[in-house]
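quick one
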Amino acid sequence: MVDKKEESNDLSRPKAPLVPGVEYPDHPLVELTHVDKHFGDLHVLKDINLTVNKGEVLVVVGPSGSGKSTMCRTINRLETIDSGVIRIDGKPLPQEGKELAELRAEVGMVFQSFNLFANKTILENVTLAPIKVRHMDRKEAEDLAMDLLGRVGVASQANKMPSQLSGGQQQRVAIARALAMRPKVMLFDEPTSALDPEMVNEVLDVMVELAREGMTMVCITHEMGFARKAADRIVFMADGRILEENAPDEFFEHPQTDRAKDFLSKILTH
Ligand SMILES: Nc1ncnc2c1ncn2[C@@H]1O[C@H](COP(=O)(O)OP(=O)(O)OP(=O)(O)O)[C@@H](O)[C@H]1O
Ligand SMILES: [Mg+2]
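structure w/ magnesium ion:
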């Protein structure tokens, strides 16, 4: 039997355009094909080909400025691309309008800074989008929010304002808020790098739990313990390219390129 995961990770697979309205049951959940992007003269993404399968946890690592955040932001079109195709669940990313808003709702994102609405309670932060975008009624949205806040361990904070919570608690609320939209995939861009060290693990624990539950995740992180524990695959980027893509043990034990060896020797000595 052909291993499905391997098959859909084969970058040499022909990339025929998908026909609208036709179901492609074995397509990857996220697929970037020949993606290029410039910021002015700077070529930040160079022929990026990447697939993320349903339930897969991908960890993206690489030196500062290598394009990790930019790549992540193109996946929900916070950044546009110059060429190539990005598909979510088989559908090319819409350019704008209602379709784009719908697609964004399927892609949850958690950033380094907490981005909670400062003038709303924790509960309101989590119920806002489900009510506005998903047209959920208030009671249903609140039940869902309390359930999610419980899962990330901050249910008792529901009626507080964000400023009354620690950074770790705020970041867990940010995760609950993203999950409230029932996303198909969650993107994390260094979600623990702004936290005090003692709060890092409480956020990583929530992410590990999410991964165990089968959430599809793309995580940019410098937390190599998390990467080893939770990742199905590590993607190493340098200078706007994906240089390596491998299982965590393989990547950490046997990096293939000098860039990855150099990167690992720097981060693993700290
Ligand atoms: N809005 C922008 N305008 C111009 N240049 C940008 C913009 N955003 C990022 N860049 C540049 O693009 C390159 C890639 O940046 P990006 O933030 O994607 O890197 P990164 O791998 O996430 O780095 P870090 O580990 O520091 O977060 C960098 O050279 C950066 O300075
Ligand atoms: Mg970044």
